[in-house]
Write a structure and sequence with these properties.
This protein has about 750 residues and is α+β, with helices and mostly antiparallel strands. The chain contains 24 helices and 22 strands. The protein starts with 13 loop residues before the first strand and ends in a 13-residue tail after the last strand.
């Protein structure tokens, strides 16, 4: 590939090819060869335009296709002008043609107006309708060179014309790389980040995802990113990468590899660029952003930001673990039980913290899983004590002995009376879970029917009963509230809680809405692919990381095996003792005696071995530092790298989608319907219509297939338009509409 020359030319110049460019203002067009101006003429001088372009082709500086794609002139017009130059010379362009009559339709005034419409980005059809002339007449004026479709207008209108430009740009730089000057400057370190610029584009695939941009920004997509993730050098910056990853998540493009199936030029239009980065470039940018502790600090910043935005939602927090199964061969990760598979498999446990309606706040990754209680004690609770806003003061806690800072809700994995006692005594944190040992059923006449308001707003009827209970035994015994729900089948579901101030109906609502977190896991696995492996590298654990001692695990396995063998032989010995043979059959009787004696000997031998094994097991440490493991026992950890970044992006995308769901749900649209509607919206085609005069960027979405869907989207767009959100990096206010649909005038406050 020939070396590109740095084009030190005015900003905004259009690249004809790698060497020749043209800079156009309102009056004059100036042509540059590399860094040197070579031609100049008035914008209205069509003869000079045909002469200059013909000379560029004739000299070999440009190809015919370069001129056609840049200026939108026809092939026949280019060939006609070139033949005239070669046969008659330059003076032929200024010789007055005899017998030519002036245009009856395209007068000078009409030509000027028509050219103005083309310069504004009008298509031929739109301009014809505006002028009230025939299409063939308009087309002939373009073919004759009286009207010019510049590169800045025509090729960016329709998908077909944009595709032609993208293919033609493949020479030297790559598909759809039409902003050559900026790319060359970025490669030389002279430019950090391409500027956001929008052209008028019709039928842009997946442009409907731009409707989610206000919600993405409101949920902190760019908040603190520059300070904590740092800036990446080159044509694509952190802003472009984060925006692209968020759009990919909402459009269900689950991995960077699947970006290969998207037209780069079309996806780039969503970013205000000529094209989206290729997969290799995107991976490199993600690695740059994922270096160090930046993703953790950014995730922590956003978690605190979300809590402060809605402090009422963090009074009750849900904690649950999710295992990402690992089937690779890079390392032998420890096994753990996967409930959805009902198997012990190798994987990584992620502990998610969500609010009552399933919105995530943060996630803790554990490649060596210490269990939920240890994770709560060491990682989650200390973080929440710092981040949860509007906690009671020490004075308020002292004045009210039943007041708690916040409540943690989890499943039976976190059941531990000692832990409940520790959390209350040390931190005044309430805990709530299912009762593991509820005991005998309560009399049904104790239960009363209540209307319970669920966190999502739904009101359900439950038969409830409450009683104080002593949970645990010995020094771990803790006095807790026990609330039971009686189902229609007669089953009693019991929960226990140290949240003494809340009504028992609220305790029931919080506990029995735990399904929202399970739904969150299912939805994220299906739509956002949270289980996907994003990095293929491994590294060592810190030497001080505690892992299960292989020697202890082997002793435990031997003990379990001996216990099973001993249990079987004791059962056989008891059976033989209960069913003895009589002496009337000497042969069978003696055989019975011998087998019984052999079995007793085996029992005594296994008991002796088990006793020795238990002593040895007690003397062996259960956990050992990773650095003290034998080399054959050491396993590696997967690089967190991109996963840290992507988990945060996915949380932002999910929260943005959930916020939009809340705007369109109503009597006729439930939550599931709203999510399906938004999924269709994000991948639908739309027109991108910038208006520099009014500083607006209008997104005209194609109409949905159902009138009800259009009404819901119109209601959503009304909220978005009232928000007056500007596209990042510009002063253009985003506006949204549905093509061909007139929305009703909703009264203020109507949902």
């Amino acid at each position: 590939m020939p070396q590109q020359i740095l084009p030190l030319i005015p900003r905004g110049a259009t690249q004809i090819n790698g060497l020749v460019s043209v800079w156009r203002d309102d009056e004059t067009w100036t042509y540059f060869y590399a860094t040197h101006p070579i031609y100049s003429h008035k914008k209205s001088n069509r003869r000079m335009f045909r002469l200059v372009t013909s000379q560029l082709i004739d000299s070999g500086a440009c190809r015919q296709v370069d001129i056609r794609t840049t200026f939108g002139v026809s092939k026949s017009s280019v060939i006609r002008s070139l033949n005239k130059l070669r046969s008659d010379g330059p003076e032929a362009f200024f010789t007055q043609r005899r017998g030519r009559r002036g245009g009856k339709v395209f007068t000078s005034e009409v030509l000027e107006k028509a050219q103005s419409l083309l310069d504004q980005g009008y298509t031929r059809h739109d301009a014809v309708l505006e002028l009230g002339v025939k299409y063939d007449t308009f087309r002939k004026a373009i073919n004759d060179g009286r009207l010019i479709e510049s590169r800045s207008t025509k090729p960016t209108i329709t998908k077909s014309s944009r595709n032609e430009v993208d293919i033609a740009a493949a020479d030297g730089m790559g598909v759809a790389c039409t902003r050559v000057g900026e790319r060359v400057l970025a490669s030389l370190g002279k430019l950090i980040g391409a500027a956001v610029h929008f052209d008028r584009c019709l039928d842009v695939p997946k442009a409907g995802v731009l409707c989610a941009l206000p919600a993405l920004l409101a949920n902190g997509l760019l908040d603190g990113a520059k300070q904590m993730l740092g800036q990446v050098k080159g044509y694509y910056t952190a802003f472009h990468v984060l925006l692209l990853l968020a759009f990919m998540a909402l459009c269900r493009i689950k991995t960077t590899e699947k970006l290969r199936g998207q037209a780069p030029g079309e996806f780039g239009k969503l970013l205000g660029l000529d094209r989206a980065p290729e997969v290799r470039c995107l991976r490199q940018k993600m690695d740059d952003l994922s270096a160090g502790q930046g993703p953790e600090r950014w995730a922590a910043h956003l978690s605190k930001y979300w809590m402060e935005q809605e402090p009422e939602s963090v009074g009750t927090l849900y904690v649950d673990g999710h295992v990402r199964v690992y089937h690779g061969r890079l390392t032998e990760l420890p096994r753990r039980y996967v409930s959805r598979e009902r198997l012990c498999l190798r994987g990584i446990t992620d502990y998610w913290v969500n609010d009552a309606i399933g919105r995530p706040f943060f996630v803790i990754e554990k490649q060596i899983d210490p269990g939920m209680l240890a994770t709560l004690r060491n990682d989650i609770v200390p973080r929440l004590l710092q981040d949860v806003p509007d906690q009671p003061t020490e004075q308020q806690l002292n004045e009210n002995p039943y007041l708690c800072r916040f409540v943690l809700v989890f499943d039976r994995e976190g059941y531990s009376p000692a832990f409940f006692q520790e959390m209350w005594n040390n931190h005044r944190v309430g805990c709530q879970t299912y009762h593991k040992h509820p005991g005998e059923p309560w009399p049904e006449h104790w239960f009363r029917e209540h209307e319970v308001a669920m966190p999502g707003g739904e009101v359900v009827r439950m038969r409830l009963c409450e009683m104080g209970s002593l949970v645990g035994s010995g020094k771990d015994a803790t006095w807790m509230r026990q609330v039971r729900k009686l189902t229609d089948s007669g089953h009693q579901t019991s929960l226990i809680s140290t949240a003494f101030e809340l009504p028992h109906t609220q305790l029931a609502a919080r506990m029995f809405s735990r399904w929202c977190q399970e739904n969150f896991f299912n939805y994220m696995m299906q739509h956002f692919d949270i289980d996907v492996l994003l990095d293929y590298g491994v590294t060592e654990f810190p030497d001080t990381e505690k892992v299960v001692n292989p020697a202890w695990r082997q002793l435990e396995r031997s003990r379990n095996s001996l216990q099973n063998k001993l249990r079987y032989r004791r059962a056989r010995f008891a059976e033989m003792t209960m069913h003895p043979e009589t002496e009337e059959k000497p042969k069978k009787y003696h055989k019975w005696l011998k087998n019984k004696a052999d079995l007793l000997e085996e029992v005594e031998n296994f008991e002796y071995q088990l006793k020795k094994l238990k002593i040895k097991l007690k003397q062996t440490d259960k956990h050992i530092e990773w650095g003290k493991l034998d080399e054959k026992d050491k396993f590696l950890r997967l690089l967190p790298g991109r996963k840290r970044l992507m988990d945060t992006i996915r949380m932002i995308a999910y929260r943005a989608e959930t916020a939009m769901v809340g705007l369109i749900t109503g009597p006729t649209v439930d939550t599931s319907d709203a999510r399906r509607l938004l999924q269709d919206l994000f991948v639908t085609e739309a027109d991108i219509l910038p208006s520099p005069e009014t500083e607006q960027l209008n997104v005209r979405v194609h109409s949905a297939s159902r009138p009800a869907a259009n009404r819901a989207l119109a209601r959503l767009f009304e909220y978005l338009n009232n928000a007056e959100v500007k596209y990042p990096g510009t002063e253009m206010r985003l506006t949204f509409e549905i093509g061909g649909y007139t929305a009703p005038n909703y009264a203020e406050g109507v949902r």
